[in-house]
Design a protein that fits this description.
single chain; 156 residues; five-stranded parallel β-sheet; 22% strand; globular
Length: 156
């Protein structure tokens, strides 16, 4: 199975890229993870928030591999514990196919993209910087895998 994280924003601080790389290399061969960063739409020329989100939606859709289950990260999505995320990861693996997880830009994901997604989850009730969301997501996916694999990484 392959997890593809599609995130708006091409540039992140070095610490965030280092953290992503560290967690991504920990995944086993049977559960690959990849980051596809797409360009943030410039907020120039009087563009509305809706116009910005539509442009970013088009880039996100182009980056999502065909046939993937699409999971949108959204502040109104389902809140999951780590153990619940592990169960969800197990379900995705049992269902077969790949999963794309979407991280929107500063204005969030376009409503049509949210509507078309297979599910919506949220990572936190807190407002997080986009670079932190990438790190938190990859760490929690790794932790979910480790729960399912019986590794001692996660302790309750």
């Amino acid at each position: 199975m392959k997890l593809t994280v599609v995130a708006v924003g091409l540039r992140v601080p070095d610490w965030a890229q280092t953290a992503w790389d560290d967690y991504a290399k920990r995944f086993p061969p049977e559960l690959k993870i990849e980051l596809k960063a797409v360009k943030t739409e410039p907020r120039v020329g009087g563009k509305t928030t809706d116009q910005v989100r539509v442009a970013e939606r088009q880039r996100i859709e182009a980056a999502v591999p065909r046939g993937c289950r699409v999971v949108a990260l959204d502040e109104h999505g389902t809140s999951l514990t780590t153990v619940a995320l592990a169960a969800r990861l197990r379900q995705w693996q049992m269902a077969g196919g790949d999963v794309a997880l979407l991280i929107g830009g500063p204005d969030g994901l376009d409503p049509l993209l949210l509507q078309a997604s297979d599910e919506r989850i949220r990572l936190s009730d807190l407002t997080l910087p986009h670079a932190m969301v990438r790190v938190l997501l990859v760490e929690q996916l790794y932790r979910a895998w480790s729960v399912n694999a019986g590794h001692p990484y996660h302790r309750e």
